[in-house]
Here is the input.
Amino acid sequence: MKSKILRRLAVLAVLVLGLAACVQRPSVLPNSAPVLTVEQPARPGRQFPVQNGDQIQVIVFNQPDLSGEYIIPVDGIISVPLVGTVTAGGSTVQQIEAEIIQVLKGGYLQDPKVSVSVIRYRPVSVIGGVNSPGNLEYQPGMRVIDAIAAAGDYSAEAILTKQPFVIRATSANRAKEIASVNDFIYPGDIIEIPANRIRR
Here is the structure.
């Protein structure tokens, strides 16, 4: 009788263990795993406003004397041959194209074809818990983690349990935004890595 009871208990134990093995345990990501917080475009588009420090190229097709490269100054105004002054700072490349076309149509060219593109964007800045804080050359598709790596990686003062901050160049009030290391950054942005001592 005892042997039957023991056999039944053994069978029951096997069944319980089998059921436990079938239960899927939820996967747990480590705290340091980067998470993309917001879906963002990988690079500034033609609707992205250019600003002081950006370098643009203006091409008027079949008119090399009217074409050229310009670094946008602090006041945002550039001078284009036959066109005169153009307010480039704060404008998109589409708006700059439209302004140049409108002036050239006024008597210089019958059907001007104009292309404006950005050759080089203004730098981004990294401050806080990195080994080499300062300005970095912006590369299209740059993320927070790329900026950290280019700034010499996390420093000993970095607080790794806290999320980075980004101050967007396009933000009117220059407010800090909590960011993920996978978030895209844009020309003129400031990335702050939380640290016990802020290094600028």
Observations:
- The first strand starts at residue 55 and ends at 60.
- The two ends are 81 Å apart (CA to CA).
- Residues 14-38 have pLDDT under 50 and may be disordered.
- The chain is about 20% helix and 20% strand.
